[in-house]
Design brief:
237 residues, 60% helix, Vanadium-containing Chloroperoxidase, domain 1
């Protein structure tokens, strides 16, 4: 018999008591999400040059045509509201009140995506389609703030794609439909006459870069896991 087993047997035989130390301390709480920042200029190369093939492609795509039904979707997608944007995929129970962890994750996305979108728009100040050509139709009435804001890149597209990528993680059973919806949410900006295609495409690149940086933050990773558990619990019968 090995020495330690012999010692234990002897202790029990002699009526002794053997104590084993157990650590009952609760696991440490995850860190809160950090204020993640990144430079959008390191991700984007700028809008197409005047007269370039890329600009010609933007002009061709902007002409459409679009069906009335697609224009109606584009008008609804003007709202910066992930709950409204994705409820067709996740169902009427997908609400902020019922998903507090997911709500916190969406807030973190806005906090991280917003600054680089604002900085890149301010640098390039690209004219929107309806500014470049006042005859260009829009699916909503442009506001003064929209008129003053540069077209490149599309903030809606950056947010919509970031939301879709993260939702695909936390609700993997519906990943394909969520990614398709996130893609169409960005395309609505072209359909609505508010952005060029390259604004939308590069907006998605900025959104994907933001998600990559969010994954580098332990606090945000913990929030993603909490949102995943929340989504799974809501989906359970």
């Amino acid at each position: 018999m090995r020495p330690i087993l012999f010692a234990l047997a002897l202790a029990f035989a002699s009526g002794g008591c053997v104590s084993v130390e157990v650590n009952d301390a609760p696991p440490a709480a995850p860190p809160p999400p950090a204020a993640v920042t990144f430079d959008g200029f390191g991700v984007l190369g700028g809008p197409p040059a005047p007269g370039s093939p890329q600009q010609a492609a933007d002009l061709a795509i902007a002409r459409g045509p679009w069906t009335p039904a697609r224009l109606a979707v584009a008008a609804a997608d003007d709202a910066v509201d992930p709950w409204l944007a994705f409820d067709d995929v996740l169902g009427p129970g997908f609400t902020a009140a019922r998903h507090p962890q997911t709500r916190a994750l969406f807030a973190q996305v806005i906090a991280v995506v917003g600054p680089p979108v604002g900085a890149t728009k301010a640098r390039w100040q690209r004219a929107r389609p309806f500014i470049a050509d006042p005859r260009h139709p829009t699916c909503i009435a442009p506001t003064d703030s929209l008129r003053a804001s540069g077209a490149y890149p599309s903030g809606h597209s950056a947010l919509g794609w970031a939301w879709a990528l993260l939702l695909a993680e936390i609700a993997p059973a519906k990943a394909d439909a969520l990614l398709q919806r996130g893609y169409e949410y960005g395309q609505s900006r072209v359909v609505c006459g508010l952005h060029w295609q390259s604004d939308v495409t590069d907006g998605r690149a900025l959104g994907a870069a933001a998600v990559a940086r969010l994954h580098g933050d332990p606090g945000t990773r913990a929030l993603i896991e909490a949102a995943r558990a929340e989504m799974a619990a809501r989906a359970a019968p």
